[in-house]
Amino acid sequence: MSMLSQADMYIAERRRLGFALRQKARHILAFARYADESGHQGPMTANLVLHWARDHAVHADPFTWATRVNALRPFARYLASQELGTEFPYGAPFGRGTRRLAPHIYSVEEIDALVAAARRLPGRYSGATYATLFSLLAATGLRIAEALQLRVDSLDLDTGSLVVRHSKSQRSRLVPLHQTGVDAMSNYLRVRARQGSMAPSEPLFLSETTGRVLRYHRVRTVFRRLVEDLGITPRGEYPAVRIHDFRHTFICRRLIQWQAEGKDLGNAIRALSTYVGHVNIVATYWYVQSVPELMAITGELFETSRTNLGDCADA
User: Fold this and answer.
1) Which end of the chain is more exposed for a tag (fewer CB within 10 A), N or C?
2) One domain for residues 134 and 177
């Protein structure tokens, strides 16, 4: 079988199991086409993978090469179960394939200013829509895609919660709201009722221009204009302030507050990881080691770990 045929079979099988494989599928298919077009026959080899990752992206950097290699790793395991002699590069020949830049952490004043500016947007409903959307992101740490996918029946004011359906990794979760959030969403629903149908399956956030679901590209355009007008400049490692920084800020502020209150940070981080929809708790611990505002928490966790190890040694 050609490498492309095997790639198609692998991707189809993984997607039947519920995996999206968007970026990884593109890498796998690109590798398979490269292998077939270069005349390669037989099982996957380590040299073939390295040549594709590096030579096929000659103007990229080692991080990009490492990302390409890592994308093929599950595919290689699949091939190894089908064909003897399958090889894959050992270790990390190009270094780490993942990296995350320190985000911008909003101050309370910046969030208040953004929400206030959004509320002043022209139109009958735009102000309420964008002000509520940005407030919800700041108060819950939802991903922007999750917020824009909310439906009318996603919000339950009686229980004070949101149902986030089919979020990243196709998982769903229940997101409790603070009473202030319940009150704000209740007020927004009164505006939303005047904007269009309130059938359970209708989008919660509508575009005033189209009358349909609010799209990310439109939200991003409005957000960038507001940030520029307010003169908010990035304090992280990204070149610009981003909508996703609402999520980063929520997580960091919550950890800082729990640390100040003397909470058990191990249990608190596990709860926070579930609340924000992280598939792996490592994604939540990343903030502790990568965001300067959380360095005190890093020290506390280190001291706790050292104490626990000492207790184990004494025992």
Assistant:
1) C
2) yes
